Amino acid sequence: MLKKSLWVGLITLPLLGLTSTAHAALKVFACEPEWGALAQEIGGKLVDVNVATSALQDPHQIQAKPSLIARVRNADLVICTGAELEIGWLPVLLQQSGNAKVQPGQLGNFAAADYVRKLDIPTQLDRSQGDVHAAGNPHIQMDPRNIALVANALGARLQQIDSSNASQYAQNLSSFSQRWQQAMARWTTQAAPLKDIAVISRHKAYPYLYEWLGMKEVAVLEPKPGVEPTASHLQGLLTSLKSTHVRMTLYSAYQDPKASEWLSKNGNIPAIKLPFTVGGTDGAKDLFSFFDDTLTRLLAGANTK
Ligand SMILES: [Zn+2]
Questions:
Q1: Domains, the chain, ordered by start
Q2: In what order do the strands lie in the sheet with 47-51?
Q3: With CB atoms counted within 10 Å of each terminal CB, which end of the chain scores lower, N or C?
Q4: Residue 44 and residue 302: Cα distance in Å, rounded?
């Protein structure tokens, strides 16, 4: 009897091995690093995450290269910001991929911005006002409360798509959410000195960050969204600096720092580089250290003067 069950065991083992290889990891294509990082947190070993862009690329301006199309073709789930951030490239990738399961409206298409309250929704759409984000500001990853909302929605979606592993996704989500809530409590305490301070941004990239921390944006270096800063616009900002108590000017890792550095030098305020997403700075290695590093940089900037 004993001998027989041992044999059964030996025969079953290779079969099990075969079964687990047949059930390959879920292929996730993420448009930006923050969503790739979140998919990895919740998917763990069950997902194979491929990120389309790096933190040093401008997510508004990505080329729909054949290599990206090929990656979308093989994806089970496409996770992007949405809210028109990728309007110039994602629709091309989706169309050219010929992958029916990741088209808008399908389970394999996940837009993070659908799950948060969006800021800066224009009341009137006027393209002469520059590259305006018609669906509201898409840079939702700058507020950790948004990350928590997206995490819940993504957890639910992964359970739907890969239902045989639903309990594992639920467990990963609950572990992530618990650690995230603790981190958010710590960040909120740490960031208290940033409340009410006035700043100038390079691009309208941080309204969610400002809302979270109670910071005030008094001006933007881009004269219009998506339009490079001009000398006359910068000169005007410099003049207005004299009457406002601006503490620092902020730009994202992927942006040319020149305009921010000019204002810093001439206006005598620090120019602070923010990672903007995972990988934007050496310190921003995952979603947790992305916010740790962002706050460290903001607090250093606020203490300069
Ligand atoms: Zn933008």
A1: 23-186 (3.40.50.1980), 192-304 (3.40.50.1980)
A2: 47-51, 26-30, 77-80, 109-111
A3: N
A4: 37
Closest C-alpha among 55, 95, 57, 94 to residue 77? 94
Q: How far does residue 205's CA lie from ligand 1's centre (Å)? A: 6
| H/E stretch holding 235 | helix 231-241
CA of 225 to the centre of ligand 1 (A): 7
> How far does residue 22's CA lie from ligand 1's centre (Å)?
41
Instruction: Identify the DSSP state of 117.
Output: P
Mean pLDDT computed over every residue of the chain:
92
Q: Report the separation in Å between the CA atom of 251 and the middle of ligand 1, taken as the mean of its atom positions.
A: 12
Reading the block at residue 22, the tokens are 């047949």
Centre of ligand 1 to C-alpha 137, Å, is 7
CA 153 to ligand 1 centroid distance, Å: 23
Quote the CA–CA distance of 143 and 158 in Å, as a whole number: 23
CA-to-CA distance for 87 and 105, rounded, in angstroms? 16
Gap between the Cα atoms of 152 and 177, Å rounded: 8
The structure's pTM equals: 0.90
Angstrom distance (rounded) from CA 151 to CA 140: 13
Q: Ligand 1 centroid to 139 CA: how many Å?
A: 6
- CB-based burial of residue 190 (10 Å sphere; 0-12 exposed, 13-18 middle, 19+ buried)? middle
Q: What are phi and psi of 201, to 5 degrees?
A: -100, 155
The answer to whether the Cα torsion of 287, 215, 154, 180 is positive or negative is positive
Ligand 1 centroid from CA 86, angstroms: 10
